[in-house]
Amino acid sequence: VAYIPAYGRKSSVIWNCVELDRFRPGENPKASAPFRFICVASMGSRKNSRRLAEALALLKQRSDKPFELRWVGRYNERNPDQRNNMAETRSLIERYALGGEFVFAGEVVNVESEYRQADAVVLVSTREGLPNAVCEGIASGLPIVAGAVSDIPRIVRDGENGFLCDPWNVANIAQALEKCLALSPDERARFGAASRRIAESLLGKSGFLREYEALYETLLGK
Questions:
Q1: Contact between residue 45 and residue 85 where contact means Cβ atoms under 8 Å apart
Q2: Is 189 exposed, middle or buried (0-12, 13-18, 19+ CB in 10 A)?
Q3: Cα(127)–Cα(124) distance, rounded to whole angstroms?
Q4: What pLDDT does 58 receive?
Q5: Among 69, 101, 182, 184, which residue has the fewest nearby CB atoms (within 10 Å)?
Q6: What is the pLDDT of residues 23-44, one digit of tens each?
Q7: pTM, to two decimals
């Protein structure tokens, strides 16, 4: 709509809804080390795993705090884009000796349990809409590190519940990761609580249904 204003008269945007009972903060605090970033994404090149690997290499140089990035998601070796991206990402992991920091977990059944074992969510895609991984992460009460693309800055508020970065800039990604890694337990709890409030305010099922009902009523009224 911002780029084609005429569409504003012909379209309505209704955001994702998240199962807030399924995606919720963990009841038991996670063990302190290592700090676990989680990225829930496919291996498509737009998910930006190569720049993320380079950013993790910078982070490893700058910080002595132990961390790991756990990449959870579908990988289709028959897809040329995913196959090439995986090969190039693994090459970077080997070059920068990130075998202990960048872990591919593959597709999992209970992704909500992965969020509950994490300290923060990372998604630095070069393009997105309103990604499920970020919505699920904030519903799970986690700080978020994300690329400032599309609608993400509307639910990831820099310095409040996460840190935004330029997904094309490796140094900027590393800086956002470093800020998140440096959060104290109290700060992490505050960021997580802010995430959960945003999810309850904007991403609940009741609001999602109300918006659809309002849209239908408007269309039927016309």
A1: yes
A2: middle
A3: 9
A4: 98
A5: 184
A6: 999 876 666 679 999 999 999 9
A7: 0.92
Q: How far apart are CA 140 and CA 118, in angstroms?
A: 10
Q: Which residues of the chain have pLDDT under 50?
A: none
Write the pLDDT tens digit of every residue in 139-154. 999 999 999 999 999 9
Give the residue from 124, 129, 134, 125 showing the smallest Cα distance to 174.
Answer: 124
Q: Measuring CA to CA, how many Å separate 149 from each of 38, 123, 127?
A: 19, 11, 6
C-beta separation of 119 from 188 below 8 A: yes
Distance CA 192, CA 206 (A): 22
pLDDT at residue 26, rounded to an integer: 84
Contact 138, 161 (CB under 8 A): yes
Cross-sheet strand order for the sheet of 67-72: 102-106, 67-72, 35-40, 120-123, 144-147, 162-165
In terms of Cβ atoms closer than 10 Å to its own Cβ (0-12, 13-18, 19+), residue 192 is buried
Annotate 11-41 with DSSP letters as a single string. ---------TTTS---SSPPPSSSEEEEEE-
Provide the pLDDT for residue 3.
57
